[in-house]
Amino acid sequence: MIPGLPLENKETTIGNMKRIKAVFLIFSFFFIISLLILFFFQTPLNIIFQTITLPIQKWVFISSSKSDAMFTSQQQLQKENNQLRVQLAQMQEIKKDNQALHDQFQTSTPIPQKLLPAEVIGVQQNTLLIDKGEQDKVHRGDIAVFKNNLIGKIAKTTPHISVVVLLSDSSTSFTAETAKTATVGIVTVQDETSIFDNVVLSDKLEKNDVIMTKGDQDLQGHGYPPNLIVGKIVSVDKQASNLFQAAKIQSLVDVADLRMVFVMTQ
Amino acid sequence: MVYILLILLCISLFLEGTVTTLPLVFICFVCLTIFIRTPAILLIAFFAGMLLDAFAIRAIGGTSIFLLTAVLLILLYQRKYEINSYPFVLIASFIGSLLFLIIFNYQNSFGLAVISALIAVILHGISRIAIQKASS
After folding, report:
1. Which of B51, B68, B69 is opposite residue A53, by nearest beta carbon?
2. Do both A108 and A47 map to the same domain?
3. What domain range is A43 assigned to?
4. CA-based nearest distance A18→chain B, Å
5. Does A57 lie in the same domain as A118?
6. Number of domains, chain A
7. Do A60 and B46 touch (CB under 8 A)?
């Protein structure tokens, strides 16, 4: 009993206290369960939840993304233009390869890798979610590509889903070269923009030149393989007072439109 | 209106797990807690958090803990102060979203929190008008 209060107020106060007790009890119960799950039951719950949610997630992603029919003629032209650029870069690579063959009568063979098709089920800030995971032999550090465009690197894997960190992520850093002039530099990200940096002033950088990976693989084949397209140069920042020149890069692939990528598994 | 908010919560779950980084689920919980105000909301928060973690490839349980704590704080706050008001929704959703985005390591947290707070106020306004019309 609470002394000094009118009967109606006392009943209300007791009712409120009971309610608060109930709220705290339910909160504590679910809080403890959440903690237990967080620290002890990650893998089994991940498998169960992802088996249930994967088809729904795919469906939601496909329905919420714009369809091909919504492309304007300008976007179509842009797409074709990008495809032509890719072809041109490929031609230049073939030309270079032929030259090397003529010169040395041999060519280097990259480490054979398998391409695993994976459907995109989500796009978030600088990441893609794909429907392939550890059970499909996708590992952290594997490379995701689309045609011969570099999309990103696998940063996290779960049994059924993996996270691809895109090139626009601030952690991106690898060596690359231009297709036309074979100028070497480092691809990094500054203010959410991809930059082809650390290029010596004496080297030549041209607008619209295609940037390709130079190859950053270790003995096990982990890392960026060579000759994957990173993007095209949209502007060059060259100042005589600086040690290096840099260029802004634009990807030839619109990540928001991607429905499928290929994972280069070892 | 509560049912509409619950449907919105389901849609937000799928959207937040696939196409957006805005904490839509948290916003829905701010609005839902204002209108439901029963311990049942904790149960919904627990399961919504689990599903959201599964969608977003996070450690399962983390979002549940965040949502449970947020709902508990709102339920405790409503004992002393009026929570069915625009300033409360604006401040609660902004601070909550900012914390959520920082804890789960999103980029541009401040900007996203501002947008989230605005969405929460609009959603709360629509809910209030709809409830007033339904009761009159």
Report:
1. B51
2. no
3. 7-64
4. 12
5. no
6. 2
7. no
Q: What is the pLDDT of residue A187?
A: 92
* Residue in A closest to B11 by C-alpha: A60
Nearest chain A residue to B43, by CA: A30
Predicted local distance difference test score (pLDDT) of residue B26: 93
| A236 located within any domain | yes
The reply to whether A188 falls in a domain is yes
Q: For residue A123, name the pLDDT band (cuts at 50, 70, 90).
A: confident
> pTM value?
0.66
CA A5 to chain centre: 64
ipTM (interface pTM): 0.86
Residue A130 has pLDDT above 60, yes or no: yes
Q: Please give the single-letter amino acid code of residue B101.
A: L
Give chain A's end-to-end CA distance (angstroms, integer).
72
Are residues A161 and A227 both part of a single domain? yes
Torsion of CA A153, A158, A160, A164, to 10 degrees: -20
Q: Which residues of B touch A31 (CB under 8 A)?
A: 65, 68-69
- Residues recorded for chain A: 266
A100 and A143 in a single domain? The answer is yes
CA distance A102 to chain B (A): 50
A1 domain residue, yes or no: no
Asked if residue A87 has pLDDT above 50, the reply is yes
Q: What is the pLDDT of residues A174-187, one digit of tens each?
A: 999 998 888 899 99
- Residues A50 and A105 occupy one common structural domain: no
Asked if B14 is an interface residue toward chain A (Cβ–Cβ < 8 A), one would say yes
State both tokens at B80.
Answer: 């002393």
Nearest to A34 among B20, B54, B68 (CB): B68
Q: Which are the contacts of B126, defined by CB distance < 8 A and separation ≥ 6?
A: none
Domain extent, residue B100, equals 2-135
